[in-house]
Amino acid sequence: MRYQITGKQIDVGEALQSHVQDRLGEVLEKYSQRPTDAQVVFSKSGHEFICETTVHLSTGLNAAARAHGTEIYGTFDMCTEKMDKQLRRYKRRLKDHHKDRTSPVEVFEASSYILAPEAQDDGANEPESLQPIIVAEMETRVPSLSVGEAVMQMELAGSQLLVFRNEAHSGVNVVYRRDDGNIGWIDPRSNNA
């Protein structure tokens, strides 16, 4: 397994890198025998350290966790505990997912844009155009999943929403976390088809 351990304006020494590899390796070995790579990013905000960990599994699913604290090793350990809890919670589903799926999740490339916010003014100035200003353009990946797999992927990644291609009919769908704590599912295909 490949580890990418980096720090944003923080020096990540050999001792911390070794601790990350040992501790994260133990957790992943318990639940997922085939992770492909892990990215761990340390940063600092004020007096707190922030640790963000993303693990890519060979099935195409990703697990992510984030923690913050005043001590860098403790912050990483909290992040690893969150990852451990997520993987333990989904252990059975991950095994079932791997059993049913003989090949990795198919991923499609799509364009992703960052738009500039509209200027807040007194309303006297009308915009010349209703077209938003594109600040950045990137490529993103849209996985082909079942609805259950999409919900599991959203939960594992700690995301508020996930755009995916529904394996049942190849249409683009969205699952998202509602304000009431439930999961919403948007399937825009026509019922007349």
UniProtKB/TrEMBL annotation:
Signal sequence region: none
UniProt keywords, alphabetically: Cytoplasm, Translation regulation
Pfam families, per the entry: Ribosom_S30AE_C, Ribosomal_S30AE
Subcellular location: Cytoplasm
Top-rank taxon, per record: Bacteria
SUPFAM superfamilies: Ribosome binding protein Y (YfiA homologue)
PANTHER family: 30S RIBOSOMAL PROTEIN (PTHR33231)
Quaternary assembly: Associates exclusively with 100S ribosomes, which are dimers of 70S ribosomes.
Main function: Required for dimerization of active 70S ribosomes into 100S ribosomes in stationary phase; 100S ribosomes are translationally inactive and sometimes present during exponential growth.
Family under the similarity heading: Belongs to the HPF/YfiA ribosome-associated protein family. Long HPF subfamily.
Protein name per UniProt: Ribosome hibernation promoting factor
Species annotation: Donghicola tyrosinivorans
